[in-house]
Amino acid sequence: MNAFQMFFLYLMMFIILVHNTGVVQSGPSDVLLRTVHADNQSTTLLQSYSYNRKLLVQGSSRSCTNRDLSISQSRDSTSGIPQYIVQIVNTCLSGCSPSNIHLHCGWFASARIVNPRTLKRLSYDDCLVNAGKSLRSNQIIRFTYSNSFMYPLSFKSATFC
């Protein structure tokens, strides 16, 4: 992984953590990558948007929801068939580990083999993440796929605590 990719990866993780850890922010902010959140809201490259989020109180009895699963992807700057880096993060702080995570993924396919324990298309528009195993708090599932276009990947279902 080159220096730019490492910087971009850390930047993406920082944006995800700040967005999902309950830091209150209001006013415009610039998003530097395409992000599809679990609730199918999408932000695009350099699109300005505003949001407010309640500050999480530690020790609260709030349970995890699909909003705590962040799905991000970005294009990798390579020649040849375009490559896309996907990251799926569980940002829930209550200790819940969602399992059996499924994504909307259309006819997902890749010219580069994706480990089926990471992401496996079961049928049209149904991809299983992490072989159905639980995704611990702040755990990141990361994979790269190659295709002529970016597949829209979004949350479909999961089993929550």
Automatic annotation (TrEMBL):
Origin species: Nelumbo nucifera (Sacred lotus)
Signal sequence range: 1-26
Transmembrane segments: none
Protein name: Protein TAPETUM DETERMINANT 1-like
InterPro entries in the cross-refs: TPD1
Pfam family name, one: TPD1_C
UniProtKB keywords: Signal
